[in-house]
């Protein structure tokens, strides 16, 4: 990154601080473990928020293993790599799914995908700031794991939605991701969704286990956003390349995601009110 870009980041970051309360909030959907349902959740959650009248930008940050275009059955016309290579502006890589739901797709198996650094991730978020006034929420689907790029993405976000499943391995990985974020000395509002639950009790117990470990060892408790049932219609919706909420809106998992979206809007409103009070 040259000096001019570094200066631009500095200036835009100053601007970001001033405008923050009116801008879209950035929500990262992440998990330690792979296959917990991040892409399924992020896409259906973003769609559900858009149906609640919110203007949403959904971004695929699973660099070079992008899945969102498959799930949404859309041809990706532009990809993030073109922004990272400075060939296109952020506005130029946005695609429409519907009036209220816009997308930035990732790449898939691009052998020339540029090597990313923490500074380039920061640059992406600073550039994103130019368009945040057009949206209510920016939802980011993440890669699995806790590498330094994912941590940098989370540090640049306003909210983290941790997706875990009831399996102890997934809970452990969600705990580790939380621990790494805290060790970076960064406090972000954390929510938990327990996906693929075989019963409400299983979801509740899983959340309690994760929450107790976070409280005991990290002195930091996440907020429960909800549980999502294991539902064969989820599998079916992915095979059919349809959004569950759009095409099987009566299914149990779809209704649970709609409830989670409504609950999230309330939490975000409270957080926004508190922030406005502080900045006044
Ligand atoms: N609630 C659910 N019920 C049944 N299957 C699910 C559920 N959530 C996700 N899946 C399945 O889990 C797999 C992984 O989901 P995906 O969203 O790709 O995970 P990730 O993005 O975290 O790697 C998919 O094949 C999907 O069908
Ligand atoms: Mg995924």
TrEMBL record:
Q: Which domain of life is it from?
A: Bacteria
Listed under GO cellular component are:
cytoplasmic side of plasma membrane; cytosol
Query: Which InterPro entries does the record cross-reference, listed alphabetically?
Result: AAA_dom, MinD_FleN, P-loop_NTPase, ParA/MinD_ATPase
Q: What is one GO biological process annotated to this record?
A: negative regulation of cell division
Domain AAA, first and last residues per copy: 24-174
Alphabetized UniProt keyword annotations: ATP-binding, Nucleotide-binding
Q: Which GO terms describe its molecular function?
A: ATP binding; ATP hydrolysis activity
Pfam families, per the entry: AAA_31 (PF13614)
Among PANTHER family, the record links this protein to: CELLULOSE BIOSYNTHESIS PROTEIN BCSQ-RELATED, SEPTUM SITE-DETERMINING PROTEIN MIND HOMOLOG, CHLOROPLASTIC-RELATED
Q: What is this protein called?
A: AAA family ATPase
